[in-house]
Amino acid sequence: MKPSFPRMQLISTTRHAVRAVTCAACARVSSPPLSWPVASPTLNARRSFSALERPPPNYPGHVPLTRTERVGLAVGSAVMSLIDPYRHDLIAALGEATATPYFIYRLRDAMLADPTGRRILRIRPRITSKTLSLTALRALPENTVGRAYVGWLDREGVSPDTRSAVRYIDDEECAYVMQRYRECHDFYHAITGLPIVREGEVALKAFEFANTLIPMTGLSMAAVTTLKAQERQRFWSIYLPWALRNGARSREIINVFWEEQLERDVEDLRKELGIERPPDLRDIRTREREERRRHREEQKQAP
User: Fold this and answer.
1) pLDDT tens across 66-77, in order?
2) Neighbour-count burial for 243-282, b at 16+ CB within 10 Å, e otherwise
3) Average pLDDT over residues 239-247
C-alpha cells in the first residue's frame, strides 16, 4: 500500500491555491482599479478651504472662492447687472462665477479640438490697444475685418482696453479661455453690426449663448424685461430668432484668430463662419426716432 502523505500534501496544496485565487479575486472586487481617480489630500484640502485660509493663487490676480462665495457672487452680480446692464465688471463676475465647473471646460475643449483653437491656446495672444495698431486698422480698406472692427469702436466710443481681467476661474488655462472670449467680444459686435445699446447687447448675448453655451450670456437675456415694449417685440420677432439660428449653426467663434483676419474681406469671413448679418439696429432706431419726431411736428401743426 502506497503512503498517503504525497496525496494529502497535494490536497493541502490545492486548497491553499484555491484559497489564494479566491482571495485574489476578492481583492480585485474590493479594491478600485488603477484607472479610477483617487482623491489626493491636496485636492481635498483645496476643496474644503475656508474664507480665512485660502490656497495660494494659481495665476496673477486669481482669487480662489469657496462654493458659498461663488454662489453669492453669482446671485449678487446677476441681480445688480440686471439693474444696471452697463456694469461690465458685474457681468464679468457673473460670467466667471457661473462658467465653472462645466461650461468653461467645454469651451476649452472646443478650442483643443480645433487646429486654430489649439494654436491660440499655445500662443495666448491678447487683444488690446498695444497689441493692435488702431491707426493702422483705420488705414485698411472699408470692406476689411480690421476696418469694420475699428470703425465699430470709433462709432460706439469704446476701447479694446476696457475688458476686466479674469479673477475667479481656478484653472489657469480656462482663465485664459474666458479672457480670450471677453477680449473678442467687440469683434462679435463688429462682424454682426450690433451696437452697444441695451437692445443690441441683449441680441448679441443671445447669439453668444447659442454659440458658446456660457451661462452668463443666457442669463443676460433677462435684461429683455427692461426694454421698452417696441424693443421687446422687435427682439422676440427679429433678433432672438436670428441669434439662435446663427449662433447654433455657425462655427465656434472662440476659434477665430481675429488678429490674422484683419485684412480679409468681412463678407467672406461672415460666409465662412456661417453668420448672416442681422437687420441694422441703429438704422431701425434712427428711423423710429425720425418717425416719432415727424409725428410730433404734425400734431403741433394740426388745428
Assistant:
1) 888 888 988 988
2) beebbeebebbbbbebeebbeeebeebbeebebeebeebe
3) 95
Distance separating alpha carbons of residues 216 and 278, to the nearest angstrom: 22
Task: Show binding-site residues.
Answer: 185-186, 189, 201
Which residues fall in the annotated binding site for Zn(2+)?
185-186, 189, 201
Q: Compare 9 and 57 and report the one with higher pLDDT.
A: 57
Q: Can you read off the three cell numbers belonging to residue 258?
A: 481675429
Quote the cell numbers at residue 39: 482623491
- Kindly tell me if the per-residue pLDDT of 268 is higher than 70: yes
DSSP reduced 3-state for 130: coil
d(C-alpha 268, C-alpha 216), whole Å: 30
User: Does residue 60 have a cis bond before it (omega within 30 degrees)?
Assistant: no
3-state SS of 195-228 is CCCHHHHHHHHHHHHHHHCCHHHHHHHHHHHHCC
